[in-house]
Design a protein that fits this description.
Two copies of one chain form a homodimer.
Chain A (H helix, E strand, L loop, with lengths): L4 H19 L4 E2 L1 H8 L3 H10 L10 E2 H12 L5 E6 L3 H8 L8 E8 L13 E3 L3 H7 L4 E4 L6 H10 L4 E4 L12 E4 L2 H20 L1
Parallel strand pairs in A: 3-4, 3-6, 4-5, 6-7, 7-8
Antiparallel strand pairs in A: 1-2
Helix pairs in contact in A: 1-4, 2-3
Chain lengths: 210, 210
């Protein structure tokens, strides 16, 4: 069964909060502790926990270390995730330098670009010419890619990813991609989100003034 | 009535495609033209058009200029949208330099940061110290903000935005914000999207192997 997006997002916020509880010296916590801090109902938290088979202690409450271990297992943080980033433009560059992925056991192991000025095979992570993409994916068994190329090169890149059996793509291009059985896609279209926001604000105002 | 996210995303893709049709010399188009190019059904397109009150010509088909005008009106592109960007870190910097917003009649008119090294009041757009945020929003009647600050400064910034009657926020911080009657929020949590993707890929594999 596929958990919905909101449920996973909540799981991540539980995880972050439990790490904070842990750093404060907590060993056990109650669903109410999470609920109060996150501003959601304790019953929703218990439902999420039951969905993900996170079990409490028979004396009540939950052990933080056990719950975190289970969450990491669910989310796949019990292993490191090597990610390739394709398209080292402005957004690509920001993501490649972004420190926050480490907390999620995600490592961008290489960047790829067509522009020779962007290429630096000795940097950390290295940036290779796009020609080397297929070979790199295959040699390093990369399963996840971040796509930050211009719209018109999306399709040829997707074909390489499919050929090399990449399984997940985080798509920042303006081209909407469809998930298939073999390749999961999450679209992040910043322009569209912003346009969407402006539209929603406009709707809200029209409603208020009419 | 509030259109859902997918519907607005489709409207934006119709818009982009119609601009391309226009540049190819088209004057009229049929729902099948859009359907074939976008890989969606013509009936879905007609439903969207009817939802947004986009009307065809009595002889059949649609006039591109009339449809584009109507789409621009719906999305709010009949006016320019001035946006403030708060937090000029890596993602903030990438967004501030991003050319693609212009196509959406969106202009980032100023950046704000606490770090004096980031501040440059003479650049285009200028980057001001966070102290000047409230005054700038109020003087320039800014209604939309992009939030790219670290998590722990999200709340104080939101309070300033509310005070200055900002109506929409595109939120890139890891803090999930709730929309209110007065302030619409769209969350873009890149870490969570990536973690979510990894989780989904894992689920897919577990399903295939079990």
């Amino acid at each position: 069964m596929q958990a919905d997006k909101e449920r996973i997002a909540r799981l991540l916020s539980y995880k972050n909060l439990l790490h904070r509880f842990e750093s404060m010296g907590f060993v056990r916590f109650f669903s109410d502790n999470l609920a109060d801090t996150l501003g959601v109902s304790a019953s929703l938290i218990r439902k999420d926990f039951s969905y993900f088979e996170i079990v409490g202690h028979r004396k009540g409450g939950y052990y933080i270390d056990a719950v975190l271990e289970r969450i990491h297992e669910i989310i796949g943080y019990d292993e490191e995730h090597k990610v390739a980033l394709i398209g080292v433009g402005r957004i690509g560059e920001a993501l490649i330098q972004y420190e926050g992925f480490k907390n999620h056991h995600i490592e961008i192991v290489a960047g790829f670009d067509n522009d020779r000025n962007k290429i630096d095979e000795n940097s950390t992570p290295p940036v290779f010419h796009m020609e080397k993409l297929g070979e790199f994916l295959s040699n390093n068994a990369i399963k996840i890619a971040i796509l930050t190329v211009p719209g018109h090169v999306t399709q040829p890149v997707i074909e390489i990813l499919q050929e090399e059996k990449v399984e997940g793509v985080l798509n920042f291009t303006p081209i909407e991609l469809k998930s298939t059985d073999k390749l999961m896609v999450r679209d992040i279209n910043i322009e569209a989100e912003l346009a969407n926001l402006i539209y929603s604000v406009k709707q809200l105002k029209d409603k208020q003034y009419n």
